[in-house]
Amino acid sequence: MNLKHMQSIGRQASRCFRLSAVAANKPSQQRRYCVVLLPLAVVHCTADTKKAQYSTAAGIDMSGGDFKNAASVYEFTVKDTHGNDVSLEKYKGRVLLVVNIASKCGLTKNNYQKLTELKEKFGERGLTILNFPCNQFNSQMPESDGEAMVNVNGDDAAPLYKYLKAKQTGTLGSGLKWNFTKFLVNKEGIPVNRYAPTTDPMDIAKDIEKLL
After folding, report:
1. What are the pLDDT digits (tens) for 55-74?
2. 181, 169 Cβ separation under 8 angstroms
């Protein structure tokens, strides 16, 4: 699979995530969403009773309160590309790996491949990988790709990323340095580690296994 194909699949994946809201007059109706396996082209739809192992979101809002006072990532809500809210509480009890992705970065091919390997290795055991498209680093996730973007740095950074950076600061400050910075979150929703963009996802495997 060449890089151009990988980038095309990445664009499809970011657009494919769906979450239909429960109708107000049908509280018993199950929500449905699509679990996107990057960089694979196959999309599996499952009921909300089965938690996603790999998903892509487009924007983030705080579900309530100041991010500095949040007890865990479960107090945050992500939005899919259609603006539907997805509470991170749905991933309670799972280990999370949060990654800011870009389709035209020199790190894209390796990260898409290795993140998929992590999902295949640990997904059934309780790992969920959450990807957030970001165009802040050299415009390597351009708007023309069709995805809504998330800011990870600056005053308008998403509250979830402000929280993650506050809990796990980097070597030279809390700001993210590039695409594919990775945050590892335990089953209690607490960020426990942060990895540089150049860290190979498979090098995180031993830390993930300790948390499962």
Report:
1. 555 554 454 447 888 999 99
2. no
Q: Strand 54-56 and strand 127-133: pairing?
A: parallel
Highest mean pLDDT among 37-41, 46-50, 68-72, 163-167: 163-167
pLDDT tens for 176-206 read: 999 999 999 999 999 999 999 999 999 999 9
Quickly count helices (H) and strands (E) in the chain.
4, 10
Q: Which phi and psi (to 5°) does residue 120 adopt?
A: -65, -35
Instruction: Indicate the pTM of the whole model.
Output: 0.72
Residue 107 inside a domain? The answer is yes
Q: Looking at this protein, which amino acid is placed at residue 160?
A: L
Mean predicted confidence (pLDDT) in 95-100? 97
Strand order in the sheet with 85-87: 59-62, 76-79, 85-87
Active site residues: 105
CB-count exposure of residue 156 (10 Å: 0-12, 13-18, 19+): exposed
What lies within 8 Å, CB to CB, of 52 at 6+ separation is 33, 35, 46, 91, 128
Q: How many domains does the chain have?
A: 1
pLDDT band at 51 (very low <50, low <70, confident <90, very high): very low
- Chain mean position to CA 198: 17
- The DSSP element (H or E) to which 54 belongs, if any, is strand 54-56
Beta bridge partners of 55: 130
- Domain hosting residue 185, numbered range: 3-19+31-211
In a domain, 81, yes or no: yes
